[in-house]
Each structure stands twice: as C-alpha cells, then as structure tokens.
Amino acid sequence: MDGHLARMHLNDHCAGSPTSPTQPLWLPDLPDICLLAYGCSSAAVVVQSAQAPAANATALSEQNVHIHNVAIPPTVLRVNSSAEPAEAVSTVAWSSQGVESKLAAVTGSKLAVFSLEHYISAIVQQTPLVQPHPSQTPACQAQHTCPLVALSWTQEGDGLLSADAQGCIIMWRITRTTDDSQRLTQAWLGGGSTVIQPQTIIAAGASILSPSASACPGTKYVTIWWPEALLQGDTDPAASMQAAKDAGTLTVVAVAEQLRHPVGVVAAQWSPGSLQHGKCTAAVADMPWNTSPLLHTLLTQP
Questions:
Q1: What would the pLDDT profile of 55-93 be if each residue is shown by its tens digit?
Q2: Would you say 164 and 195 are in contact if contact means Cβ atoms under 8 Å apart?
Q3: Which 8-state DSSP code applies to residue 49?
C-alpha cells in the first residue's frame, strides 16, 4: 500500500501534516481490508480502513486503491492531552493481533499505546461507531529520558521494544491493574556500557522472554539481547513464570551478545519461533560471519 496514496484520502481528517510513514494492518476476518495508520504534526494518529487493490491490478493507482466504504469514519487518536504540547508523532507500530491489535505511537520521549478493539470490531461487524470512543485515548503510556528512535512489537504482541537516542533499549509489557486499566511496565532493560550509539535498527523476538536484536545503521555489529527470568527456588518454574507474568512481577535480566558482520548492517528481522539463552550458541559459532541462524540481516555492499 503506497503511503502517499493513502494520505491523499486521509489528510482532510486531521489537522497537521503527516510526520511518520504509513503502517498497514491486515485483518484476518476481512482479508481484502486493511487499516492504515500514520502520525501527524499535531500529536495525533489517523487510522482509516482501506480496500486492497484488485487482484488483477498491475500497478497501484488512485483508481484501484480506495478507502473502504463502510459506516466507520476515520478516527483520530490523541497522543497528548489538550494541556500538553502538540509534538509531532514520529513513529507508529501495530501489534499483529487481529481484532485485539494495539497501536503504539511516539512523540519525542513519550510512548503511547492505543487499544483499538472497539474501532476494529465496528469495522468487522459493519456497525456504526459512536464518537468519541475509548480507542481514541491511550490505554497506557511510558516515558524515556530522551527522544525515542525505534519501536518493535514482539510476534506474540505481549511486549513492545523501544530504543532511544542515548542507546537505551527497553522491553515493555502491558499489564492490567486492579481496576482493569492497563499500564506499561519495564520487562527488561538493555544499553548502558554495552551500547554507546543509538540503536535505530531493532527487532523484537517472539515474546518478552525471547531474544531481541538491535544495531546502529552502517556498523558491523548486531547486539542480541537474551532475556533471563529470575526465579527463586521454585519446583515448577513454568507455572511460577506464568503466574509472575500475569501478575506483572516477573523479574528479567537481559544478557548482551554481539555478532560481527563483514559489512555494515541496514536491517534485521527474526524468523517466527522462540529461542532461549544458550540453545543456539554452538550453531552460531559454526555460522559464517558468526550470525545467528534465526536472525535475518540485510548488509550493505563492501
């Protein structure tokens, strides 16, 4: 889906110019429909349902890509309250969880997560949506100490990896409080003396407890972050870990491992699946260039 084409249809619905790339989300119950989201200069995110190109279309054009004609208008998500400065939204990212999908957005050092279940359910069921609706305000928020530069959801949607301009890497998890509201809590922290440059290339793994990766564009090193859960004397570690995750009390430490490539790295992406620390050490040692067998990387030319 061409981002510029999508914005032609959406610009009228939000004050401010687009400030982030357009991100699509495909709905499993409606395979020919996707949601488009992009950030604006007014601390807002626009979300709109869109029709996929015709199967026989040879090129994207205004004629074969159009906004889905349902009773659901575009929705504007407000990252900041009216009392806060209207900073531009620099990044948006979907978690791939269908109707229960969440959308993360960044303004400066602030991270906001929206739960779009009401909006997506209205599109799937073709029912009108009363404005305003709960999806328009953040379900939970968090703050870095300096501007954020990258976001990546885990494949299971249980964690959100963020990186800031000082090289700090944080894996966030969404937990529910006693009043059934949501909050972002830190699952594990990376960076410090291990990373001295901003990690604008990040790739979250399958889940919070799966390895994640980060890199600075053009450098030859990728850092693999191996999360290790700290459990004290439990006879049933799996049950104890799940209970701690549900309660939001799981303590996790991330161990850093650096992999060297022969040339500069420009992108990274994990294959589907889950790894644990120590499971692929031997395999990595035998790989050319010392690359992880389940981490796909794009390299610049020598």
A1: 544 444 444 444 444 446 788 898 987 667 778 999 999
A2: no
A3: E
CB contact at 8 A, 142 and 187: no
| Gap between the Cα atoms of 194 and 254, Å rounded | 11
The structure's pTM equals 0.78
> If you count them, how many residues does the chain have?
302
Of the candidates 53, 49, 37, 34, the residue with the CA atom closest to the CA atom of residue 3: 37
pLDDT tens readout for residues 202-222? 999 988 888 999 999 989 989
Pairwise CA distance, residues 223 & 217, whole Å: 12
* CB neighbour list of residue 137: distance below 8 Å, 6 or more residues apart: 77, 78, 114
Rounded distance, CA 204 to CA 202, Å?
A: 7
CA distance 29 to 98: 8
* Alpha-carbon distance values, 48 to 9, 74, 75, 109, 134 (Å): 9, 5, 7, 26, 16
